[in-house]
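Bug #77: duplicate submission created two jobs. Keeping one. Sequence:
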Amino acid sequence: MNINRIERLRSKLRELGADGALIGDAVNRRYFADFTGSAGLLYVDMERTALFVDFRYTGLASKQSEGWEINEVSGKRFTRSLAESADFSGRKLLIGSDSFTLDVFEVMREDFPKSDFVLKPRIWARLRAVKDVGEIEILRRAAVLADKGVEFMISLLKEGISEAEVAIQLEHFHRTNGAEDKAFDPIIAFGPNSAMPHYAPSRDVKLKKGDTVLMDSGARVDGYHSDITRTVFFGDPTSEMAHIYETTFESQLLGLETIRAGVDDVAVDRAVREFIDSHPEYEGMFGHGLGHGIGLEIHELPVLGKMDEGAPLEENMAVTVEPGIYIPGKGGVRIEDDVIVTADGCEILTRFPKELMVI
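Kept job's structure:
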């Protein structure tokens, strides 16, 4: 049992005046109880840490969730079994309102008719935003695999290969080199397709001389995600694309230099956005946020974006820094690294070279 995580959860219960917490989604079951089964419910109060599973997962739960009270549920839903295990009359139960569907919440109200619910969106995501030592070490390992993935993709680049073929071979590479899975469906975009920030690789698009090649990928290691983007050129780029690259590169370095604990997340995005927009030909061509948190989810808190409400970055948060400039019909450039926020800057986890590269 990770007692530090449980104590932080209990501290949140005290802060919110709640008596206990119900946690039912897979990501947070894994975070708090190390449980990877596809179904289950956690209950935590000031004295009790209980995991409710069906017969498929009692063995797995006993193996993974050391120190937790394991309850097998047979023929009943998890919340009803919990309700029958103790008197919850008048108790306040904390739930992450984004972690349960409305249907499930209605079931919970049936099973705890004399309880009150404290609903908080993204409550568990906020607890997970600051990483502990073990999490950071896993993120470092995932980043190493992300770097190797970029090197592997570049080795595949030859005239006539398709975007989809690169993506398929990358997934096999990651799985055979220590990843549980890909972190997300990779974005492999050739030529003008690189101007689309989110793009699905095509079997019909073949690499040809002069193409910009944008590669956004990552690996999942022990549940944790890495996320890296590199853009290279298959043959000499035009002067315009070379200038776009250098501008994006400079903006990304500025973002990395701006990050440190205490700096507002929106301020980091603003610094990079203003730099790109200071080039009139690229004003408005950086349309997405600068970055996002990474961890047990590929997109989690904090958010480095112009639409975010804004909050200070904290030491040991893990975020991406990924500015891009996209010219429809011509091509785009994005450069992305994973970093850990430190007191006076950041630790860059992804290390694959970023200088303009011609293949």
